[in-house]
Amino acid sequence: MQEILLPKMGNSVEEAEIVKWFKQEGDTVQTGEPLFSIQTDKAEVECESTASGVLRKILMPEGVEVPVLTVIALVGAADEPLPDLSQYGAGGSATAAQSEATVVSVASAPQSAPVTLISASKAPVSPRARKAAAARGINASALAGSGAGGRILEADVLAAVPAASVKITPTAKRMLENAGASADGITGTGIGGKITKSDVGQALEKPAASPAKEGTVAEGGGPRRVPLTPMRRIIAERMSASKYSAPHYYVTVEVDMKGAKAFRARNKAFKASFNDLVLFAVAKALREFPNVNARWLGDAIEQGGDVNLGMAVALPAGLMVPVIWQAQLLSLEGMCAASKALAEKAQTGKLLPDDYQGNTFTVSNLGAYGVDHFTAIINQPDSAILAIGQIKDRVVVIDGGIHIRPIMKLTLSSDHRVVDGAVAAQFMGRLKAILEEAAF
Questions:
Q1: What secondary structure does DSSP assign to 201-213, as a single string?
Q2: Residue 114: pLDDT band by 50, 70, 90 thresholds?
Q3: DSSP E strands: which ranges in 230-321?
Q4: 68, 129, 157, 379: least buried by Cβ within 10 Å?
């Protein structure tokens, strides 16, 4: 009998929720075939089977949050006897037996009745469970854990919340998060009143109320509470930490993109976007300025051996920054392929944790939204981030003559602990020269 483990998706991911099993018990599976999908803080990821045979037992159902490297299923021959499932803490009464705590079922008690905790559990508590318990005023260590070895998971904490709490499937929850909406006002049609995917779909399809006239408040309007998604919470924490810990300053240059436009018109082998040209130019300039491709360590400054470019991608649920690794080794064609692949993975929720970690410098482009110029908050642990505005025809004076040129504004936000003003100015001057000379 072969064990299927919840894979380790990166150093920062300790647990993940099983979203969907693509196979059912008794189905034949092959090594490398998609077997289940999981949801991390930022992305949903399909996981392949690591064994071939018959899926004999699913140990962890959909909607359960599981620590990485937990055995979640067994694959073997059709007639092979199953082992003792109690060793996995699932598939039987083993989980309850391993925990010393018992908890009164809230669903069967009156809504006004408090949750009664009998005794404390010695089982470990996952970080998410501890955080969820603190937010709800629950003693997590006193709950019965449903995880491997009696581990207390976030789902155990949520199960101890009064029955009036919203019940929603993982897929429906993600649909609401992606739409930036809440479950308020949605009636669940699933088992026990659980909100399903179809319930959310119908709610999102309803036409929005007509906007009120300027200077008035819409009838029945008022503040609307939008719960934080995991992605939005992470963005808030990291951007606040960056803005308040790193002394930001900003350097802006105007770049004449006439040469870059001509290069794109001549280049027929592959289609490079203006963003690709900037990414390539940034990687080239950073090779000459390793002190910009650096991070603050507190007692030292660490210069990156490689240029790992973070590329900000806007999603309905928030901002993702997938990373182009070793960008200094890529040709322009390779840069185009890498940026396109990462953008598609981000839009389809297929990014792996390692795809958005390890950045040494970040580029953020709002030109497509008609933005002329903006300043960006440093994406730590980087010490600088480049903000790209739109390319716009402007009147400029060249050698005493008046001309109309396609101008793009670039703004570098730098951490003054690492990057001095003169260094930032020199880096931006070099970046400007590469783009204007079309040195691709």
A1: HHHHHSPPPPPPP
A2: very low
A3: 248-256, 294-296, 301-303, 309-311, 313-315, 318-320
A4: 68
So where are the chain's domains?
2-83, 97-159, 170-198, 239-436
Least Cα distance to 293 among 310, 307, 281 occurs for 307
With 0-12 / 13-18 / 19 or more C-beta atoms within 10 angstroms meaning exposed / middle / buried, residue 320 is buried
CB 401 within 8 A of CB 381: no
Q: How many CB atoms lie within 10 A of CB 128?
A: 18
Instruction: Return the CATH fold of 239-436.
Output: Chloramphenicol Acetyltransferase (3.30.559)
Name the DSSP class of 306: S
Pull the structure tokens for residue 304.
Answer: 């990156």
List, by residue number, the catalytic residues. Answer: 416, 420
pTM score, two decimals?
0.60
d(CA 26, CA 258): 63
Mind listing the pLDDT tens digit for each residue in 170-217?
Answer: 677 767 766 667 777 787 777 667 787 778 877 876 654 444 444 455
- Nearest CA to 379 among 365, 362, 399? 362
- As a whole number, the mean pLDDT across the chain is 82
pLDDT digits (tens, 9 = 90+) for 224-235: 888 776 677 778
Single-letter amino acid code for the residue at 48 = E
- Rounded to 5 degrees, φ, ψ at 114 are -75, 160
Q: Looking at the chain, how many residues does it have?
A: 440
Residue 338 near residue 324, CB atoms below 8 Å? yes
15's enclosing H/E stretch is: strand 15-21
Architecture of domain 2-83: Beta Barrel (2.40)
Closest by Cα among 105, 190, 68, 88 to 149: 88
